[in-house]
Amino acid sequence: MQPQVDPFIAPPCVEQISIVYQDEHLLVINKPSGLLSLSGKHPLNKDSVHWRLVQDFPTATLIHRLDFGTSGLMIVALNKAVNKQLCEQFSQRSVTKYYQAILDGALLINGQQQVGQGGEINIPIIKDADNFPLQKVCQQTGKTAISQYQVISYDAYDAYDASCFLSSELSFNSDSITTKVLFKPLTGRTHQLRIHSREIGHPIIGCDLYDAGQSYFKAPRLMLHASRLIFSHPVSGSEMDVQLAAPF
């Protein structure tokens, strides 16, 4: 059986990586939306966070990844010892991660719009063997996936000015409500926040993988941003709390 290869070809990304924190041991960078974390097998997918970083930091290695469409904070090790220590923190789930997202529709709490309130989503996820590289929900054999969320605000859809990206064949209420949320994933499954958002009836706007409706067309990008990382510095042991507001 031949291994499955993602046929996706990334369009050129003109946005640059910015460094949010830097010392001799590590970087925390801001990944732009529309850039691969690691170079793909296809020669047209060479451009990536890692490929760009090693031009200036030859020993740089990524500790974790963000999806192609997700923007925000990533930790980069600058030597093998730091890489090992940071990878252990991720494997032990001692790194706290927060994401900001825009969801389609009004996410109600106890039947009402309630800013500052939230809940928890506990829906197991497994690889979709028939639809690489997608994941799917499976109550029988899926791996535990838990996401906590809190409502930040409710906003009018037209605040994102995405009309120029809409298909002329689609029609919907441009004044519909969207919900900005803060996610705290307690597990790190692939596409976890995308799937959990869809499963509660409010897909992330701009999601091209898990929304068969109109949410994908409502923004020029995936409206998901890694906004905060809390971890222990691998050398000093001090707590690192790095924050970066979403660009939306």
Automatic annotation (TrEMBL):
Specify the Pseudouridine synthase RsuA/RluA-like domain's residue ranges: 25-197
- Name a single GO biological process: enzyme-directed rRNA pseudouridine synthesis
Q: For this UniProt entry, which residues form the secretion signal?
A: none
Judging by the UniProt lineage, the source's domain of life is Bacteria
- What is this protein's record name? RluA family pseudouridine synthase
Q: Which InterPro entries match?
A: PsdUridine_synth_cat_dom_sf, PsdUridine_synth_RluA-like_CS, PsdUridine_synth_RsuA/RluA, RluA_PseudoU_synthase
A single GO molecular-function term is:
catalytic activity, acting on RNA
This protein's species is: Reinekea thalattae
